[in-house]
Amino acid sequence: MSWNWNSQGLPFLPGYTFRDITKSAFHRPQTLDFRNGYALPRRPTAGIGQDPLLSEQLIQQEINELSLETPDITYGSFDDRLSEHFIPAHVALDKKVLRFYAYFEEDILHSPEEVYRVRPVVIYYYLEDDSMCIIEPVVENSGIPQGKRIKRQHLPKNECGEHYHWKDLNLGTDLEVYGVKYHITQCDAFTKEFMESEGIVLNDAEPMPEDPYTKCREIPQPHYKTPSEFDRMHQFLTMDRKVLRFFALWDDADSLYGETKLVTIHYYLVDDTVEIREVHEPNSGRDPFPVLMRRQKLPKKIRPQAFPSCVLEVSKDEVDEYYSPKDFRVGQTVKLLSRRFLLYDCDSFTKEYFQKNHPDIEMKPTEVPKKADMLKYRKKEVPPYNGFGSPEDSLQNCLFLIPEPPKKNVVKMLENDHKVLRYSARLDPQNPENEGRRFILSYFLSNDMISIFEKPTRNSGIIGGKFLEKTRIPKPGSTVENPEFYSPADFAIGATVEVFSHRFVLTNADRYVLTYLESNSSQIPSQTLDSLRQKLGVGTENNQPGDQNGDEVAEPSS
Questions:
Q1: Which are the contacts of 407, defined by CB distance < 8 A and separation ≥ 6?
Q2: How is the beta sheet containing 97-107 ordered, strand by strand?
Q3: Are 314 and 254 contacting, i.e. CB atoms less than 8 angstroms apart?
Q4: Which residues lie closer than 8 Å to 41 by C-beta, 6 or more apart?
Q5: Residue 1, SS3?
Q6: What's the pLDDT at 283?
Q7: Residues 308-336: pLDDT tens digits?
Q8: Cβ neighbourhood burial of 327 (10 Å; 0-12, 13-18, 19+)
Q9: Domains in the chain: ranges and CATH
Q10: What's the pTM value of the predicted model, to 2 decimals?
Q11: Which end of the chain has fewer beta carbons closer than 10 Å to its terminal beta carbon, N or C?
């Protein structure tokens, strides 16, 4: 301050202070200093404007004088020993947690194996802030989400806003939280000591009930399986580290340049597995990993299935027979995973094994054939037709890496463009509901395809229109490898045409049909021509070529 009010003996009140007009310094004293490069605080020795400061000793002396002047009769004597040091709850109860063990029952719906499941939990009560958390111990491979069920919080006790307190917890009681009832069974030693010190008598501990489903899983299920006559343990003890080695030649005809590679085929007698490794010469530039086929059991005969299989791995239940040592004969070709290998030699151990166990098999080692001699072993095999698309389109996927459209008879398409043979047909009356349904069967001469159109019938309840799109129809009994399709020579009046399990009976034909077939009478049976002439009522000498686009198929006259 800029004035010394204490020297004049006046109280420090407004109107009792006088300003020193002679004072000219009003700056604050310096309180920071640097020593050896470090900033250190410095206690000020003077106030603002160089005013003297009251020392701590004078202030303490005045306080002591005031305390001595206070009579003990009025306020009594003061003893520091009677005052206790205050400790807050977050310090006194820090890291002190009550631990209770409990469980809850979970109902299992729509399961014939179990009705309910017992799930144990651990309840933690934090004395610091009266918060609680519930954790379920994690069981490996249980398939159930476990871990922290309720995070640390104040758990509501009722709808009035009250929360659970440690006084509400005891053994053998239920703790209902968020609709789940937890039954407390046990607690740890610290929890028991704390509850007894607070005057709470704990109930007797209860054992944790067993989970019925877990108990059922521990009981071994009966197995009704006849033991195998083949002893795998004997095979392991006698055939361990015994391997048959064959030297083979692989003609990789499907590669870019059609290479021929030397390979080594290992047959492990301990588990009947096969491994194929390539033989690499130094500085050959080949892949540094010579394993062509990893060690595995090769299926030789797979059971036929009635539906398409899209599984990459084949289980042992689907295989009737695996490859065995007798399938590897030196001097012959063996097919492994759709690849052909010519076995030209084997090692001495393999020869001794075959002489001892398979003396009827002849081992005829041959020289390594040259690349030019391997052409006779090349044989492209086409997989069977799978029924999708036309056989010609499916064949292109086997012949070329990038399929090309199959070649078509352009001359035939140009000569027979817009030429259609039309027939009138009806369904074979196997079902009474199909009576009265009439169809027009059109045969396209440009691509030998057939389409069927159904005529609309009044008050029949059946919507007419396109019945079959243009497609080639195979004859019944023809094989998938060599299909035989319908041709105009098969379409005689009264003949039955089976179209994908539907039987159609030809009743009439267009006049142009007879004209076209008579122009190619050398390829048409006489029975077909006679049926058309008889139906149309036209003699051979009066036949005139009609307009194929103008004549319509007429219904048979009554």
A1: none
A2: 147-153, 131-136, 116-126, 97-107, 180-187, 174-177
A3: no
A4: 31, 32, 33
A5: coil
A6: 75
A7: 666 667 777 788 888 999 999 898 889 88
A8: middle
A9: 25-77 (no CATH), 90-217 (2.30.29.170), 232-377 (2.30.29.170), 416-536 (2.30.29.170)
A10: 0.35
A11: C
